[in-house]
Specification:
five-stranded antiparallel sheet, Peptide Deformylase, 213 residues, three-stranded antiparallel sheet, alpha+beta, globular, 29% helix, binds zinc ion
Amino acid sequence: MLSCGKQERMRIKIASVGEAVLRSTARPLSNEEIGSARIRDLIVHMRETLSDAPGVGLAAPQVGEPLQLAIIEDKADYQKTFTPTELKERGRVPVRFHVLINPEIELLSSPDVTFFEGCLSLPGFVGMVPRARKVRVKALNEIGEPIRIDAEGWYARILQHEIDHLAGGLYIDRMWTRSFCSLDNYTRHWKSKSTQDLLREFDPVRDNRSASK
Ligand code: ZN
């Protein structure tokens, strides 16, 4: 009967900044754990949580599990609020859902691309974070197969953000601190500004230069 077929979607509570799990170093998953029912269920629930939030990436410590596991999905739908120019500047293209287990990241360029970035563990805030344009990630997928990802642009940013979580890192550790602002104020004052204007306003190197004059 249709009325009895109610399927419970499982949304997990997302840990917010100040909870110790977000600052702990996540432990790698063993071969036995990968593909186990517990980890399979965790991935399903994390995917539902990410989609509900919504967000483009979620790391296991964010749902209270200090494990080297993260998921990523940047849906085309999420990119509709950006202009073609903004998408091009960010190198942002849709990324299909996928799972990273025990990832290792290598930055293939210096962290010199800076945009506003947010995190589901710091809801309602954003800050400008310099990131490498290109990265290489080696990891295992959800069935334990080795995968290698060469990414650039916004996808490279998401990978850096999620893999930071697995080492107890948050974007606020890397951001230009003076750019930190509430999402409301970002929308009100900064969202419509050009990238050049934002760099001029918040780049700490430029700031030091003008302060020393
Ligand atoms: Zn995050």
